[in-house]
Here is the input.
Amino acid sequence: MKKPIKIVLVLVAVAGIAYAGWHYSVTPDNNESDLTLYGNIDIRQVSLTFHDPEHIAEMTVKEGDRVEKGQLLAMQDLLRFQYQIESAEAKTEAQRQVLARLENGSRPEDIRKALADVKAAEADVTFADKEYRRMQALVKRKLTSVESVDRARSDLQNAREKLRALQEVYALAVAGPRKEDIAEAKALLKANESALNLARKVWRDGHLYAPSRGIIQDRILEPGDMADAQTPVYTLALIDPVWARVYVPESQLGKLKYGLRARIMTDSYPDKVYQGWVGFISPSAEFTPKTVETPELRTSLVYQVRVFACNPENELRLGMPVTVHIFLTADAAEGIRKPCQN
Here is the structure.
């Protein structure tokens, strides 16, 4: 009887050890007040390019240089762009004068000249009419030929047609330009002004400025290289924001809220703690689970979380491994960024 009892005791002990090992393996190394996660530092990077193709004339920074927002980083050869501006300026000014001439209407001198032409034509009509009548009288007395009468009649008709034409010219001079012509001139002026603004923007785009504070990570091209929108000149690593990219299991996801305070520690500065806050929680799992999830599969899903960090001395670098402690009992301000603390 003693042998079966010993066997039972051994089995119970083994089962107890196995349960203890299983319980230790599935219980996360966190308590109810904080959550410890592991990840890497991440930042945003910007590829800086010129908009229009042209050779690079000057580059002012190199790898590792800190730059401020709006700082000039590089410049293209601007001569061709300057020629485009000058051409657009000339076309715009010419069209502006055309519009001014139409809006001002006819000059008094033009109106007086048109009126003088009408009066001269009236005198020509009067003379041609008298000449025609005189020819008619002479032909009745057989003192001239029929051809002379026909010629006088034709001269009278031509004089009258010329008078009517000059009267129309005078009327147009008095009335001034048509409103449709003025509208067309305005539209052409607007198009020329747009072309001028575009030429000026192309010239400005020949200057490459830093869009934000950061550090030059890569200097890809050099002066003399052809640069365009498809070829980056620099890669800029932004100083702010900086965050720790960590992953939380699905079983712990419900404990996180936006704005929860956190501490970030690194191996590079083991005695230094960086303040942080939860700023992003991924709405979806990092990896797609199977169609039917068992309880074991559901607990293995992970979600990306970004813990934004205060980095006043720029010590947190891209890819640096970090340990993040998130305080679960701290007051969370939904969607509000936590201020950096010393």
